[in-house]
Write a structure and sequence with these properties.
Shape: globular
Distance between the termini: 77 Å
Number of helices: 6
Strand content: 15-25%
Helix content: 25-40%
Largest sheet: 7 strands, antiparallel
Radius of gyration: 27 Å
CATH architecture of the largest domain: Distorted Sandwich
CATH superfamily of the largest domain: Glucose Permease (Domain IIA)
Number of domains: 2
CATH topology of the largest domain: Glucose Permease (Domain IIA)
Structural class: alpha+beta
Order of helices and strands: HHHHHEEEEEEEEEEEEEHEEE
CATH class of the largest domain: Mainly Beta
């Protein structure tokens, strides 16, 4: 009996101590929770993955609709049109029907708010990140003056009149160094073929990489796209004078096709067949720039779209350098991000 009564006393004593302790610390916790609720917000999430599987034919259709709407004075966005279709099909464009395209176009022309459509906000942001800098207003030098245009601003990575061949090789296995997926697009071309800036931006990477050889990385002005050009020419890989931090314009010559890379030693031709590796990385948050969170999209359909949008170039016989034939202008932000990557 004595043993039982003693245990009960300990139990009640422990309960009483716990109650007193809780009463003492609860006000402090309450103040901390209140301060957190008033002084901070939950960090906004960002997109972690993008599958860009829009066929080239559909890209062209949406682009034409965008241009026609702009010319008529009632602009719509090709990104919104593609996002509507992607949301309707769950990203599976094998389900495409012309009637759906026309319905989406009518909704946009009528000014209908599509934000409540399931998945539309996601595709609008994701496709906007991929295509954001490809369409808009620009000027071309013609004769002694400049002419304004609206439409496709981006250029093919390969200069006009220079032949190349390609196929959709995104995701194909690669073995050098370690087993991995190919996260770019290879365009087979002769050594010395001028490489063109697809989009305007700032040079964020310039130099040697064991896998990519001599390579260039250009970040779009909005920071969402990182254009990667690799396996450039041995000895003279870059356009003369190109430097880290430079601003380049869409259609500028930035380098030359080669077969460097697959070597820890700098300036080595480790690739059997000369080609340009062109990759497009999407960056919603700087934590995605390098590491396991990187987002690379399949650019095969984009390169097909750009096949008829190649930059005309001319050769300087004394320097043997190629430059664009016609001047190009577009709005450039007064402040653009400083180069930060070394990918």
């Amino acid at each position: 009996m004595f043993f039982t009564i003693k245990m009960k006393g300990k139990i009640w004593g422990g309960v009483l101590a716990a109650v007193l302790l809780l009463a003492a610390v609860l006000p402090a916790f309450s103040q901390a929770w209140a301060a957190e609720a008033e002084g901070s917000e939950k960090p906004k999430g960002f997109i972690k993955w993008v599958d860009f599987d829009v066929p080239a034919k559909l890209l062209q259709m949406a682009l034409d609709a965008d241009q026609d709407a702009h010319d008529s004075g009632s602009p719509i966005s090709w990104v919104d049109l593609l996002a509507y279709l992607a949301a309707k099909y769950g990203g599976d464009f094998s389900l495409f029907r012309q009637k759906d395209f026309e319905t989406g176009l009518e909704k946009l022309q009528a000014g209908e708010d599509l934000s409540s459509m399931p998945s539309f906000p996601y595709y609008q942001e994701a496709y906007g990140a991929v295509l954001g800098g490809f369409v808009g207003e620009y000027e071309l030098e013609e004769g002694e003056g400049w002419k304004s245009y609206y439409g496709l601003k981006a250029y093919s990575p390969i200069a006009e009149t220079f032949p190349y061949s390609d196929y959709d090789d995104f995701g194909v296995s690669r073995e050098y160094g370690y087993h991995r997926r190919h996260l770019g697009h290879d365009m087979m071309a002769a050594v010395g073929t001028p490489v063109i800036a697809v989009e305007s931006g700032r040079v964020e990477a310039l130099g040697w990489n064991q896998y990519g050889g001599w390579r260039i990385g250009i970040r779009s002005f909005d920071g969402l796209r990182y254009h990667y050009y690799a396996h450039l020419r041995k000895d003279r890989p870059f356009a003369e004078g190109l430097a880290l931090g430079d601003t380049v314009l869409a259609g500028d010559v930035i380098g030359y096709v080669g077969r460097t890379g697959y070597s820890a030693t700098e300036n080595v031709n480790g690739i059997e067949q000369s080609h340009l590796h062109y990759g497009l990385q999407i960056i919603f948050d700087e934590s995605q720039k390098e590491g396991n969170g990187e987002i690379w999209v399949d650019v095969y359909s984009l390169c097909r779209l750009l096949r008829d949008r190649q930059s005309a170039v001319q050769r300087n016989d004394s320097t043997k350098e190629w430059t664009r034939t016609h001047g190009y202008r577009e709005a450039v932000p007064s402040e653009v991000p400083d180069p930060s990557g070394t990918t």
